[in-house]
Amino acid sequence: MFSKFKPTWMVDAIYQITPEQLAKHGIKGVLTDLDNTLIAWNNPDGTDELKNWLKNLQEAGIPVIVISNNNHHRVRLAVDKFEVDFVARALKPLGKGIREGVHRLDLSKDEVVMVGDQIMTDIRAAHRVGIRSILVKPIVQTDSWKTQFNRFCERRIMSYLQKKNPDMIWQGEIK
Length: 175
Hints:
By secondary structure, the chain is of the alpha/beta class. The chain has helices at residues 19-24, 48-59, 72-79, 96-105, 119-129, 145-164, and strands spanning 9-11, 29-32, 64-67, 85-87, 112-116, 132-136. The chain has a 6-stranded parallel sheet with strand order 1-6-5-2-3-4, sandwiched between helices. The radius of gyration is 15 Å and the shape is globular. It comes from Enterococcus camelliae.
């Protein structure tokens, strides 16, 4: 039952995922959540680390599309400065936004990965569409009020999954 929430990989931070690691797994495109994955939910400016990560992927020819449940205006304000495409109102954990992202990338599902900080939305949506997923730790430990209930449920699901799957440990890279 909870296997639908199990990520393919667990990495400490999105910035640790390199083009070389992605290529090793045949990944040619990245879909990513926005809040607490790329940027702190309460600070949309991003960091130099984020800008360097996006630049490295761009130079490697790996496109990035942000998949967010936020409205169009909020997502556009956050990502315009990073020059990446986005899908707003993605309706995660449903697969709508991820399917749209895969379609825009014009890649097969085997060549795409979803990166996010929530198992109940990002990872579950990736499973629904049939793509691999990378769970990352949230950038900041606080959440908007809308996310706090999910975090409560996620702690219980993660505890169960990690008991059943001792290989579910945080890594410094995707292996």
